[in-house]
């Protein structure tokens, strides 16, 4: 039994500078917003083998306009290979960027839980359990959500509504969870 613990990215911490690869071969800085946005949501998902991830990513597509309206760019990433991501596209209906090839070292740097496949039919590599990070305009972790299984993830409607509230300057809402 493994007794050491994973490192977690803490609220208020600088998000690591990490590059990921999109299907078209473009290399992106994971936390850098694009499309005129100033915040970035990074969704780490298990991979093609997970039907709950497929459902979550497809539901996340429904939230893209609401995220854009509040200035939050979006990317999703997994440890799948390029070929696994290409075959996963048959089940996905998303327009936001999907990256592949997240390494175990990168997963560890993000602090996500990592699982080994139960069988070769599930997948052929260790994979990240779900993680979701929202990075603000200073490159700081504003929101972090980590799970050790696919059944527990933020409800997307509540998350987007909460981000809209946080982003409203009239609310002057600080990063939560900063007590040391």
From TrEMBL:
It comes from the Bacteria. GO terms for molecular function: peroxidase activity. Keywords: Oxidoreductase, Peroxidase. InterPro entries: AhpC/TSA, Thioredoxin-like_sf, Thioredoxin_domain. It holds the Pfam family AhpC-TSA. Gene3D superfamilies: Glutaredoxin. Residues 9-165 form the Thioredoxin domain. This is Thioredoxin peroxidase.
């Amino acid at each position: 039994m493994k007794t050491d613990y994973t490192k977690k990215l803490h609220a208020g911490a600088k998000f690591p500078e990490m590059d990921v690869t999109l299907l078209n071969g473009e290399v992106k800085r994971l936390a850098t917003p694009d499309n005129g946005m100033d915040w970035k949501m990074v969704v780490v998902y298990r991979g093609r083998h997970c039907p709950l991830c497929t459902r979550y990513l497809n539901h996340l597509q429904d939230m893209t306009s609401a995220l854009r309206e509040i200035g939050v760019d979006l990317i999703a990433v997994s440890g799948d290979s390029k070929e696994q991501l290409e075959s996963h596209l048959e089940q996905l209906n998303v327009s936001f960027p999907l990256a592949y090839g997240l390494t175990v070292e990168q997963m560890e740097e993000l602090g996500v839980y990592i699982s080994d496949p139960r069988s070769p039919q599930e997948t052929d590599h260790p994979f990240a359990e779900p993680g979701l990070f929202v990075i603000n305009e200073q490159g700081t972790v504003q929101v972090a959500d980590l799970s050790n299984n696919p059944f527990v993830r933020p409800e997307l409607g509540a998350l987007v509504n909460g981000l809209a509230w946080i982003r409203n300057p009239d609310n002057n809402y600080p990063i939560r969870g900063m007590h040391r």
